[in-house]
Amino acid sequence: MKRLKLLTLSTFALITLAMSGCSTHTPLYNYGEYSENYYSLKKEATQETALEYQKSLEYCIENAKESRSGRVPPGIYANLGYLYLKAGQNKKAIENFTKEKTIYPEATFFMDKMINKVEALEQEDDK
Amino acid sequence: MISKKSALYIALLTLTFVLGGCTAGPTYVTKGSEFPKMYEEQPRSLLILPPMNASTDAEAKDYYMTTVEIPFAMMGYYTFPVEMVGDVMKQEGVYDTEILYNLPANKFYDYFGADAVLFTKITKWDLSYMVLASTLTVAIEAKIVSTKTSQELWRYTGMVRVDLSGGGDTGGSMAGLLVKVVATAVNSAAADYVTYARQANSRLIYSLPMGPYHEAYMRDQTVKLVDQTPKDQ
């Protein structure tokens, strides 16, 4: 009888825990200082603000687990890939564009378009 | 939980009614009844376009753009990388918002594979100086349009008005008045528009049905909102 009570109690506790899971204040994604650094970059584009912006993208990737979803937020891998593309590091650009579409299938169309562009650039360079 | 909440609402509404007598308070609608097309079409991805700037501040557009991605992603939608999308559009020669906002919505599907487009308009982004006080106003209008049906799926407005003078006494000598004006000017300089833009966003975004990456996806249709529909329509 006592055991049954304990079981009911623990089931109840579990349900409460599961339900309160929805109201937890851990955000869906961990964006770190992304927004602030993006703003600084827009306000004044210097080497320093550009570096801070890149660091905040890397932070989002490294600390993705500290969020409700455990995922890297949408667009972060794409942004990083785009920075590599602008720096002429095409291989790294493609790597990041691929990661973006792997996590978010919604991005596949756009990322494939970008990857094709990079590959076309490479072929032109080889000529 | 839900019934408790609605009971509270009813109690609050009744109280408002009793206290307010015949004057009508705000009316409430639900997300489901207000934005049924969001639940029918279930868009997964949002293409955030550069905002249209109807304010007097030329820089508002760039700054506001840095505040949009996160709140919409947090609501459970896939948001396309704003900076990259902006650059791609520039390369295509369509960065001008006037042109962008007149393009047929399906073009954004053809180019980005986006389910829906988010149009935003900055209607106010300014400081108004008065002798004794100054206020900062940030007001945003937003709408989501389907790239498949070109129909408007969601629309809302958000505004934040901040009194920067910080209160205090209003009477006094001429010297007191001068001090006050100086203090106001200092406060205004330190005021950060972007912080308030974020607040305006959070006010408007509350009404948005959750997206597929959010736990409450498709289950938030009963959430109540203040009805924004003008009474004379």
Automatic annotation (TrEMBL), chain A:
This is DUF4810 domain-containing protein. PROSITE patterns: PROKAR_LIPOPROTEIN (PS51257), TPR (PS50005). It comes from Sulfurimonas marina. The keyword Signal applies. Transmembrane segments: none annotated. Keywords: Signal, TPR repeat. TPR repeats lie at residues 74-107. Pfam families: DUF4810. It comes from the Bacteria. SUPFAM superfamilies: TPR-like. Residues 1-20 form the signal peptide. The keyword Cytoplasm does not apply.
From TrEMBL, chain B:
Transmembrane segments: none annotated. PROSITE patterns: PROKAR_LIPOPROTEIN. Gene3D superfamilies: ABC-type transport auxiliary lipoprotein component (3.40.50.10610). InterPro entries: GNA1162-like. Keywords: Signal. Coiled coil: none annotated. Residues 1-24 form the signal peptide. This is Lipoprotein.
